[in-house]
């Protein structure tokens, strides 16, 4: 949303949308993310990483490699590179570059100006940190008050009127000074700014200003939500996950490689190395539930009662699924080095000390869930609310797809751009891309061997007492879900959750092309398997690791295809193209600024030959 004029949208649960200032050209590396660009570079390029950066005009002292990830499935490596000025990293300069097994660059970001990049003299000197530029929280509060008029939106995007920010949100006690940073306001100009963190409800805002707190350069909300209910009146009688199940009986099928310390601390209880449960209604006290004499957590669920009466069952359910998700995603590359969430690592891996803190049965708001992702090494938070769409109220912690959707936000936020930075999914488009990723991963955990592509799948059906919290359910039946890539041109589809709905609808076709071709495994731990759902998830995760900061949908599509192309999975590559093309995202599809999106249904020539 634009800073000039100064409105940011807030959803009905009070979560502020992230936005970059429209009046400033924020630094962004130029991506060669279009697929043809990748292909020509991969086939003809023989540049090593230092050579590639030198061709971008960077000297050795002007960049640093923050982290490198190994991809065991493809043999490629992803490097996270930052600009450096006066020995310090430039806050918003992250570049993501992938090399092959011979250390040659196959894809990545370049600086917009190539060899012409350099800081302007007089613009980038280290300012004197004297008393006159000490951080002034009161000044920042006034800046936010003056420039931000908060527009509150209802569940379906309807305008609920203007809320006076000075009376409700912005105050000095909600803001903390986080430090001085170098910030690129365009590719020529680096300034020294100030970083602030403001906590307003569940929103955790990462704010960059000038040295005096008078000019707002960037704001990113670290909390990502599932979205509110659309309300279709469809009644699902019980929590469902591959049919009716009772998830409150947990024996803890721990994966020893992913969770070497197990799930439970001693004595065995619902708190451990990966997850800490908290009761926000009891002063944020930790919840530690003990098993029975047989070591089984057996707590019945009676959904005819209010959720507070089955809190123990909710706690066990959430504890099980967040731990299970942790262990599954470890198999696909989200390990300690990639920035996963855990307190300790026996091998002394970096970024420990950050298990997920889960607030269950929150009641300060209703009908939502969100995940606040911090940098590696700092605890992230999953907030799960009650839903008032039914009498008695329902507990979002019993909807496994809501839980998986939210924790996937944590995974994508850590993997896209690397685990040591935030803000790589902060633009409106990339936030929408992340919403689509979270929905499709939730569906991967929901869909089993008994399902097919023409069935309807919702998100949060039981909690919301509806078919889905989305406008459409996910299905290949275009009479039920007619969305195509070109629908992003419509004004009503410009918010993150509607962008995500379109993107996940497209990915759904790709996933089912894989499933129909290779079959479905009910064991997602088989990450190296040749079934459709495991290959699809594996390709997604490796694509996230190679993804540039703030990707468009095209960037996200092309990184997915890149993984398949490099592994020479020709049939799967063409099956993916068929899925993208079915929903209008073929080779000739068009995305341009100004909300121009055009459907095209063509596939690469090599896939046309296969069709013949």
Any key phrases for this structure?
alpha+beta, disordered N terminus, Peptidase_M4/M1_CTD_sf, Elastase, domain 1, 612 residues, Nuclear Transport Factor 2, Chain: A
Short summary of the structure?
With 612 residues, the protein is α+β, with helices and mostly antiparallel strands. The protein has helices spanning 35-44, 49-55, 137-147, 165-168, 311-331, 400-415, 428-446, 461-464, 496-518, 532-546, 553-566, 570-582, 605-611; strands spanning 7-10, 30-31, 63-70, 77-85, 88-89, 95-99, 105-110, 149-153, 159-163, 175-184, 190-200, 203-209, 216-221, 223-225, 249-250, 275-279, 285-286, 297-298, 356-362, 369-372, 381-387, 394-395, 590-592, 596-598.
Question: Explain this structure to me?
Answer:
This protein is an alpha+beta fold and 612 residues long. The protein has 4 domains: 117 residues, no CATH class; 82 residues, Nuclear Transport Factor 2, Chain: A (Roll), CATH 3.10.450; 162 residues, Elastase, domain 1; 184 residues, Neutral Protease, domain 2, CATH 1.10.390. Helices cover 27% and strands 20% of the residues. Strands 14, 16, 17, 19, 20, 21 and 22 form a 7-stranded mixed β-sheet that branches. Strands 2, 3, 4, 5, 6 and 7 form a 6-stranded antiparallel β-sheet that branches. It has a 4-stranded antiparallel β-sheet with strand order 10-11-12-13, with helices on one face. α5 packs across α6, α6 packs across α7 and α9 packs across α10. The longest helix has 23 residues. The N terminus is likely disordered.
